[in-house]
Amino acid sequence: MKSTVFRSLILTAVLATAALNCFGQGPAPQPSAPGSIFDGEKLIYDAKVRKLKLNLAVAELTFTAVGNPPTNQLVIKSEAVSKGTMLRIFRYSFLQEYESIVDINSFNIQRTTKHDVQKERVRDSVAIFDYDGKLVTYIETDPKDLNRPPRRIASDVGGQMNDMISAIYALRLQELKVGKRFELSVSDSGLVYKVPVLITKRERQNSLLGQVWCLRVEPELFGPNRLIERKGKMVIWMTDDANHTPIRAKIDTEYGNVEIKLKSVITSN
């Protein structure tokens, strides 16, 4: 398979799963300082690509959340690192690191920092959210070419706003039940999208946590004018309890299928 095909598949998985760290093993949400329930969580996932009857390990995803009470902030860090078949056979490597800073009370995203490495290509970026000015400003630079002008994008924002990671944190804080449908406002790379979310079914799933009842959550990420402008579908299975722990995700694309499964949970609670 061409490396460009794998690149599209894996980057889709990274985008779609960057948010999975939101569902930890902490206690049920409380009315005050909702973001504090995520403090101390660390979750690790394996990502595999299924193509032509092959099941190939391609990435490990790690997510951590740490509260900073003096600043009323929650700092969420995520990392996606290539491994397995991607490195051994296709010699394609990538590293994506996100840092999302969220107001722990309003749960509005304040700042998103990214470090994106795809083989020799490297990009650093920052998105700063100004709610008084109702603007998000995105700046992307190439640290390997300091003479290259920064790429700048600015978009209007208003009300509740999330980035790719904090959007699913916000989802956990909602009351979820089969048939419920709502929208999340998500900013990525300086642009703002409306992401419809539908809770479609209640199903049993085998997982690291045992066999558990789960809610089938379907965010509409793919399609024209969506966050990911290609054909595809994503499903997240979250435990049907106060924690809404994500135990599995599946992304179907024209290039193949990506399976993501929880393999480790560490909490400080």
Shape: globular
Helices and strands, in order, run as HEEEHEEEEEHEEEEEE
Strand percentage lies at over 45%
Mean pLDDT: 82
Radius of gyration: 18 Å
Between the first and last Cα atoms, what is the distance in angstroms? 44 Å
Largest sheet: 14 strands, antiparallel
Q: Helix tally?
A: 3
Count all strands and give the number: 14
Major sheet strand order: 8-7-6-5-4-3-2-1-14-13-12-11-10-9
Helical content stands at: under 10%
Look at the helices and sheets and give the structural class. mainly beta
The quaternary organization reads as single chain
In the predicted model, the low-confidence regions spanning at least 5 consecutive residues are 1-8, 17-31
Kindly describe this structure.
- It is built from 3 helices and 14 strands.
- It has about 270 residues and is mainly beta.
- It has a 14-stranded antiparallel β-sheet.
- Strand 1 and strand 2 form a beta hairpin.
- About 35% of the residues are buried.
